[in-house]
Write a structure and sequence with these properties.
Elements: E1 5-9, H1 14-19, H2 21-27, E2 35-39, H3 42-54, E3 63-66, H4 71-81, E4 87-91, E5 97-102, E6 105-108, H5 113-128, E7 132-136, E8 147-149, E9 159-163, H6 179-191, E10 195-203, H7 218-235, E11 240-242, E12 253-255, E13 266-268, E14 273-275, E15 282-284
Parallel strand pairs: 1-2, 1-4, 2-3, 7-10
Antiparallel strand pairs: 4-9, 5-6, 5-10, 7-9, 8-10, 8-13, 11-12, 14-15
Length: 285
């Protein structure tokens, strides 16, 4: 078990943060001392302090830290803020909850199970020599499986964890578009392994809420994403390719399959046990 910290970058989304990610963290009984909320400037800090106070939640956030404005900037700041090697669990401010695969169906993650999953992910990273982990990007039982994989897989940016790499991983292209792909590639180049819990997923409202990444409108985002994708295809042709099958305004990319050197691609976790509400009560996937 490791002493992990929860980090949440947020901008102009006090109410959304309280109703979604903070409510999720409270449900899973994450102590306030573990929660670090990163804001853009002193004005935003006052806004969040007052907003949390007005909804009676100030005591549930242990730390409000002034970082930098902009998604890549604050992501990079967080890695610089904590000592290298610190176990970090990153949330966007709009995470509404978690589900896990049980048989062929999904069910909500129970309160005590979140910490178990995080502890398992960090333990798995230590076991296979990885620093980066995440969950299945879409809460869909048809595609999920009772496995943990180690090859280059997509880890969506709204929820993930890592042993802090410091400045060895940084988002330097674009304004946050496809930053989840960039992060995965850089961790893969460091370790040759990424841990993904394919039995676990989470729910968000990535393109729907006001504030945050969506605050400057879709047209501007589409233009930025096209420019970012072009740069990524030139910089990492061995890892990414365009995905012409996806229709829509936003350009999409796919990872090119990579091989885990000297190890397995994935393993089954049918014997996994997670807590229900007490340590003496157990549940199997």
């Amino acid at each position: 078990m490791v002493d992990w910290k929860v980090v949440v970058p947020s901008y102009n989304r006090v109410e959304g943060f309280c109703k979604k990610t903070l409510a999720t963290l409270k449900f899973h009984k994450v102590p306030a001392s573990k929660i670090y909320l990163f804001v853009a400037n002193e004005e935003q800090k006052r806004l969040y302090e007052e907003g949390l106070e007005s909804c009676g939640e100030r005591a549930t956030v242990g730390h409000i830290v002034v970082g930098r404005k902009g998604l890549p900037e604050v992501r990079n700041f967080i890695f610089e803020y904590f000592p290298v090697g610190t176990p970090l669990v990153s949330f966007d401010d709009d995470v509404r909850g978690f589900v896990r695969l049980e048989g062929s169906k999904l069910r909500p993650l129970r309160s005590a199970e979140f910490a178990d999953c995080v502890d398992m992910a960090f333990a798995e990273c230590k076991s296979v020599g990885a620093r980066f982990w995440g969950d299945y990007p879409i809460p869909n039982a048809f595609f999920m499986s009772p496995t943990i994989s180690y090859d280059l897989k997509f880890i969506i940016g709204s929820f993930w964890g890592c042993f802090n790499p410091g400045t060895k991983v940084a988002i330097t292209i674009g304004n946050g578009e496809k930053e989840d792909y960039m992060r995965a590639i850089q961790f893969w180049e460091l370790d040759g392994r990424i841990v993904r819990l394919n039995f676990l997923s989470h729910k968000t409202a990535t393109y729907n809420d006001s504030g945050g990444l969506q605050s400057d409108g879709q047209a501007a985002r589409v233009a930025r994403e096209k420019a970012t994708v072009e740069k990524m295809l030139k910089l990492w042709p061995q890892y990414v390719r365009a995905n012409p099958r996806r229709k829509g305004p936003f350009p999409e990319i796919l990872f090119i399959k990579q091989t885990v050197e000297g190890g397995e691609q994935k393993r089954e976790v049918n014997g996994l046990r997670l807590r229900k509400t007490r340590k003496t009560r157990r549940n199997r996937i």
